[in-house]
Amino acid sequence: MAATTTTTADVRHDELPSGPLWALRDSWNEARRHLRAVPRSPELLVFATLQPIMFVLLFNYVFGGSVKLPGGGTYTQFLIPGVFAQTVVFGSAFTGIGLAEDLSKGFIDRLRSLPISQSAVLVGRTMSDMVRNILTFGVMLGVAFAIGFRFQGGIARGVLASLLLLAFSYSFSWIQALIGLSVSSVEAANSAGFIWMFPLTFVSSAFVPTENMTPWLRWIAERNPFTIVTNAARALYSGAPAGNLVWSSLAWAAGITVLFAFLAIRKFGNSASR
Amino acid sequence: MPGTGTPSDLVVEAEGLVKRFGETEALRGLDLAVERGTVLGVLGPNGAGKTTAVRILTTLLRADGGRAVIDGVDVATDPARVRARIGLTGQYAAVDERLTARENLDLVGRFYRMSPKDAAARAQELLERFTLVDAADRVLGGFSGGMRRRIDIAMSLVARPVVLFLDEPTTGLDPRSRLAMWDLIEELVAEGVTTLLTTQYLDEADRLAERIVVIDHGHAIAQGTPDELKDLVGGARVEIRLDAHGSDGDAVVAALGELRSPGGGPAMHDGLLHVPVRPTTTAPDVVRALDAAGVTIHDVSVERPTLDDVFMTLTGHAAEDEGGEG
Q: CB–CB of A33 and B99 under 8 A?
């Protein structure tokens, strides 16, 4: 049957094009594979969105009365950027879990046996997770506005703050990619992906001012890149002077992306189903 | 290499493959050769090194030693050109369950640099070929293992590979799906798809492969056609039930003449006369020989050793009951 014979006359196995533009097309096709799945399991998106909404509401109404802000201002305006930051960073865990799933099902083997750009699989995955993160972020923003959060620094700065958070979360996707490719199961990717993000996000300025912490904890919290990003976003949302915070945040995001993309792509080249 | 064709007919040519994982030596000098348009069965128990060999040949793993060439392209120095030539169906059905069969096929076509139009046309072609048209636009999540495997193999054929690698294609399938998969593989083979098939099932290798390499502990311990391998353990024998009126056993043996195998003499077991014969002997051959000599008998059958016997003889253990990783 013509459909499956091995006559190679009509397939030029040696002339498959490659190059950066093809790598981009490969990445897009891989991203589309994941994006197609999003509307097909709406419950995933619903739960991914419900969690940050609960965080916004719980923190705001449970801690709101008892957290003293050294600089004054409302706790809502203080808290929301922290919840945003934590949510997008937690959202990066999807990258590792998804890769571990593809690995355990042998799909990574299939992709690695195709003549595609090897980095496209990870670029496509992280990009599609970014899109999912943006959707969650939009919903969260709506809830935040409903309980009194405002872009006090104006729309442009508000958008910039949001993009900064998303860029930071994108860099964390690459850390999670490395984790997902390194662990031995989906369950392990889940645990290993989340466990370190709790101290990272709580020992920070996200939920309480670092001024209220014991000195050694405060010392750590103030050097935590997550604090730097949260503070940058908080300053931009509130219209306060952000100083070097924005540049430091971008430097962290870029540095983490470059380092972990390098490590994850190298790991991908040696990965295999188990 | 023991292949009968000229070297240019070899689509897969591996020599002395060595692979170590820490202390474990998964492959210790494995040679493999697949001629164009044929099926090579790589038969061995779990942990023999079958999957490791497939991974090296499909560029997923680098060998620590030896050399492998696919359609004239070296897997170590030019993996991208190798990937353009091969189709891989691994031990798991590597399909995206969140997508439909059509979307899975379309995706692979695009990854092979086809235009969206060509990829869609090729997907349709394969859906028809694999009689998946009715289920083409349903998400794979609820499909049976057998269906997923079919789609998996279809995905491996999108770019008309020079060689198809099937790594334990029926492992984990129920008996009915397994038979359906055998039919499908036989059809592909009839269409001329060059295939390297690994299996731990002897009946599978026997039915599908034209040549078999038996591997154990990372190297080949025997190879040949299924019949050649069976000859290693003594070839075939005829079992004759003598006529009730007392046909003469010696006359029967004499009548078989040229059909008899040089090794081993006749013997009586449970009222049956066992005579070792040449491996190609068929029951009609025996009947004709006896007729020609005017010897009457009650019944005759030709018994051949199974690959189970072969495996037992070669390795001292059965093929299917050894634990460990593939």
A: yes
